[in-house]
Write a structure and sequence with these properties.
The chain is mainly beta and 230 residues long. The protein has helices at residues 51-59, 73-80, 147-152, 169-172, and strands spanning 14-20, 23-29, 32-36, 41-47, 61-67, 95-97, 103-105, 109-122, 126-138, 182-184, 190-191, 227-229. The chain is globular and about 55 Å long. The structure holds flavin mononucleotide (FMN). Flavin mononucleotide binds at residues 13, 25, 27-31, 45-47, 50-52, 76, 80-84, 126, 150, 158-159, 161-163.
């Protein structure tokens, strides 16, 4: 089987949010899609280790925020490379509580859908939650962020817990560098001196060793000590 065929599937990028008791949580997914029209239903595939999974199982509701191309790496890093058991993901983001009581991320969102779970399909590592859409709203204008744009234009990575993780992701996607490149052991981002980190005003040519001590991974926020020479 040529697993490269799976890589040609197209996706968007979303934040799926839910809650358990007082705890609000959310995570990045690319696996969100409409499953039927009448009634409108929507499905998401969530890793069983994730706090978001625990929240959806407990509350039986979830929201899906459709992200725009303007979404920054900080959003992806917070919601896609950190666990809500370690941080409060909502602290620095705009959100509201929906009619299902699920939180809804609004920062750089174009639209959202709220759903009540009607099926949970056990997929081994993940659960596929299918929900009845009970509310939906367009909240912004712009181009929806796609999985392809995230990888090709933003240089993003997909972590192991994602439903579509490919074992070679960190090696085959995103920027590559010479031997002086350093790889983030948390998310797989590669710092390439030839590219620098333009979003942080690090110009091409700056060696990893010369990055400021407080420089952090642009994808997941990990400190310099988490990087290894490639
Ligand atoms: C581009 C991208 C796509 C992802 N897609 C999924 C997905 O479809 N399903 C999933 O369970 N995790 C996916 N993840 C990983 C979760 O967002 C990540 O494991 C998150 O830290 C879980 O947070 P939590 O423990 O707070 O719920 C994806 C991450 C990224 C960056």
């Amino acid at each position: 089987m040529d697993r490269n065929a799976l890589k040609s599937l197209s996706y968007g990028l979303y934040i799926v949010s839910s809650y358990k008791g007082d705890k609000l949580n959310g995570q990045i997914v690319n696996t969100a899609f409409q499953t039927t029209s009448r009634p409108p239903t929507i499905a998401v595939s969530i890793n069983k280790d994730n706090l978001t999974h625990e929240c959806i199982v407990a509350s039986k509701v979830f929201s899906v925020s459709v992200l725009s191309e303007k979404t920054g790496m900080k959003t992806i890093g917070t919601f896609g490379f950190n666990c809500g058991r370690d941080i409060d993901k909502f602290k620095e983001f705009e959100y509201r509580i929906g009619i299902t009581k699920a939180p809804i991320v609004l920062t750089t969102a174009l639209a959202f859908i709220e759903a009540e779970v009607i099926h949970r399909v056990d997929l081994g590592t993940h659960s596929l939650f299918v929900g009845n859409a009970v509310a939906a709203e367009v909240v912004g204008q712009g181009t929806p962020l796609t999985y392809d744009y995230y990888h090709r234009t933003m240089g993003g990575k997909t972590p192991e817990k994602a439903a579509t993780f490919s074992g070679s992701d960190a090696k085959t996607e995103g920027p590559h560098g010479p031997s002086s490149s350093y790889v983030c052991t948390v998310c797989g981002y590669v710092y390439n001196p030839a590219t620098g980190d333009p979003r942080r005003n690090i110009t091409p040519g700056v060696a990893f060793a010369d990055l400021p001590q407080d420089w952090t991974c642009p994808v997941c926020g990990a400190g310099k000590e988490n990087f290894e020479k490639q």
